[in-house]
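So, read this over?
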Amino acid sequence: MNGADTMDTSTLKVIFTSGLVSAFAIRHPYQRENKKNKVAVDRQTTREKALLVLVIMGTIVLPLIYVFSPWLIAANYQLPLWAGYLGAIFFVVALWLFWRSHHDLGKNWSPTLQIREGHTLVVNGIYQKIRHPMYASLWLWCAAQALLIQNWIAGLAGIISFGIMYVLRISDEEEMMLEQFGEEYKAYMQRTKRLIPYLL
């Protein structure tokens, strides 16, 4: 595969880093607001904290090491030109979904398994069709990462780390919501899908 058939590595790095900065900009005001809201139910176990650290390592730390240092260069791979464009599209859609999830949740958002005082069940906006649009955005983010960070370690670290967290956390989160909202959440589960409307 020659250079004309692939996207320049520097361009890929700029696209990914721009997406990462945009994600921080989207989350920052909600994170600041989140600190003001008192926690009513807290299920932050040691495992939960470890999973969050794992995801931060996989989606932020390792990609940034790849972007700003030569340490992982031996694990690079090359994808066709279209993969870079597809990665950029995935990241744009992921960022929109990431923003929309935060926007629709408002003060109900929490980065971990917590319920805040005055927490309400959000079933409108993007949540009208899927229960976990934030997770859907992160799956797209991780797919974009694998296409833009063309490195066996930094590129795939997002899918692996987030995949582990998703599998281990999703049932606990829905169980917490069932305990909090009971039949209302059960009915909501029956008319929605977790990630993709009408499918999954």
Observations:
- The mean pLDDT is 90.
- Helices lie at 9-34, 46-68, 81-105, 133-148, 157-181, 183-191.
